[in-house]
Every structure is written in C-alpha cells, then in structure tokens.
Amino acid sequence: MLDRNPIGILALKTASLLAALMMSLGVAAAAEEGKYPNWKGQWNRQRVTGLAGQPSFDPNKSWGKGQQAPLTPEYQAVLEANLKSQREGGFFDWLGSSCRGFGMPLIMYPFQPMEFIVTPETTYVLIDWVEHTRRIYTDGRDWPKEIDPTLVGYSIGKWLDTNNDGTYDTLEIETRALKGVRLMDNSGIPLSPDGQTIVKEKMYLDKASPDVMHNEITTIDPAFTRPWTVSRFYKRVHDGRPQEYNCAEDNRWVVIGGRTYVADNDGYLMPIQKDEPPPDPQLFQKYCGPKK
Q1: Highest mean predicted confidence (pLDDT) among 104-108, 197-201, 278-282
Q2: Of 171, 173, 192, which Cα lies nearest the Cα of 181?
Q3: Which residue among 54, 245, 261, 265 is least packed, with the fewest CB closer than 10 Å?
C-alpha cells in the first residue's frame, strides 16, 4: 500500500481552500466594481465656440460680465475692479501668475486633462495643474466636527442609481471647508474669503454619448445673491497619455511687494502696467553669505 502523508494531504486541502477563497474574493470584487460607472480615461473640458473672451466658468456664456454671475453690489464692484486691472495689464488677485492654487470650484474647469479613480470608499480626482488630487469620500461618513480648511475643501459624495437597474450612474457631491482667495474664473468673478462657500455637484455620463460627462455645479457663497448653478461638460480621451505640468517651470512672473513683474530673457524685471514703479529697494537685503 502507498503510505499517505497526512501533512501533504492537509497542505493540498489548505491550498484548495485558499484558491477557492481567492476566487470568491475576485468574483466579489468584480461584482462590486461592476456597480460603478466607467469613468476611465482622461477628461478634457468641452469648449463652446463663438463666445467672446477667454474660457469662462459657465461655458455657455461669454467671459466677464457676460457670465451674469448673481453678485451682490459689493462683489460686483470687485469684479469691475478686476476687469479694469486686466485692461491696464495687471493681474488683480489672480493667483495663476505665481503658481498658487485656485481651489474649488475653479479646478473643475479643468485646465489640463483630469482623471477619476473610483473605489467604493473614495473617488479620487487627479488634476494635473497646480492642485493635484481631490478626494471625494463615498463611505457614508458624516461631516467631521472640525475640518482643516483647504483650497480644494472637504468633499462628501453619494452614489445614486437613478435608473433602478442595480448600477450607479450619478455621483452627488458637497464640498465645504474652503479657504483663501478664490475666483470663479480668470475674468475675476470673486468669491467671499470668509470660508463659507459650499459647492454642490451632480456628475453623470451623457445617456446618448458615454464619452461626455456632465457636471452640474451649484455654488453657494455670501458674494452671491442666490445659489449659482452652471452646467459644465467634459469630453473623454481614451488614448490620452500621462502628462506632467509644473507651473513653476519657466514661469517668468515675479511678485515683489504685492506687485507683479515679468523677467525678460536676460533676467531683468520689467513692469507689466503703465507707470508701474520699480520694486522698493527696502524689500531687498544685502547678501552677507551663509551664517557661521
């Protein structure tokens, strides 16, 4: 008779059980993944042709005053001052020239292609601009009692099955705890700096064209007389290549004493506005070498 090794038999049974367990976990993971929409690929903002001015937050309306933002009189005056500054060659409080973050909701333009990584607990938005990552928590958590404010804010989302077909198709998001000077677009439409901004979004794929994503963005802010809702559209690029954008690389804009200058090819600072004074020498200190 053959001598059966009980240890070998146990090892075979254990291996079989592990294989079955791994297979079941794989099936479960695939089933869980199948509940979520396919948002893979890169997404670019969809441009609307024939509109005056630069790209605007509401892509269906012209830039600047053409946006018809529901600003209070106080903040309408801020917009007027920002537009005047641009006509004179200035940057007002636009942070892009110095590579500082723009924050929500402006980062959902997007300036560069963005990508989504969807997991049951968190949806990550990869933004290849100044900000790099946005996290949308979809694990059912409530709002924390204390949140450290950031430019991108704290986002909680909820997946919806609006078709009742067993799969999610819509992501509703609310973002709070936003800080700093933020604008709706580079025309200078302002938001209040008091940190009370709330941004609500509804994101879903177009039923007729799954390569088009809708993002209905509602911004609630003390600078507005009412909530402002804008529908933005993103176009999917299936064969998009990874991109790297470093805002500080080759950036010639220099901020000194609250004024912006541009460095020419020889490194000399040049004014960007008419009759702009040179930097105050008191802003510079003599270099005396490293401290000993």
Answers
A1: 197-201
A2: 192
A3: 265
Return the structure tokens found at 247: 């805002």
Average pLDDT, rounded, for the chain: 84
Contact assessment for residue 201 and residue 231, using Cβ atoms and an 8 Å cutoff: no
Q: State residue 15's pLDDT score.
A: 64
pLDDT at 287: 63
E strands, 119-227, where?
Answer: 122-127, 133-137, 154-160, 170-176, 198-205, 212-220
CA-based nearest residue to 102, from 183, 20, 16? 183
Residue owning tokens 């636009």: 94
What number of helices (H) and strands (E) belong to the chain? 2, 12
Place of tokens 């946005």: 134
At 146-163, the pLDDT tens digits run 999 999 999 999 999 999
Q: CA–CA separation, 90 vs 92, rounded Å?
A: 6
For the chain, give the number of residues: 292
| 3-class SS string, 31-67 | HHHCCCCCCCCEEEECCCCCCCCCCCCCCCCCCHHHH
Q: ∠ at Cα 249 (243, 252), nearest 5°?
A: 135
Rounded Cα gap, residues 183 and 56, in angstroms: 11
Cα–Cα distance between 232 and 46 in angstroms, integer?
A: 8
| Cβ contacts of 288 within 8 Å, gap of 6 or more | none
Q: How confident is the model at residue 196 (pLDDT cuts 50, 70, 90)?
A: very high
Range scoring the smallest mean pLDDT among 7-16, 29-38, 262-271, 273-282: 7-16
95 vs 185: CA distance, rounded Å: 11
The verdict on pTM exceeding 0.85 is no
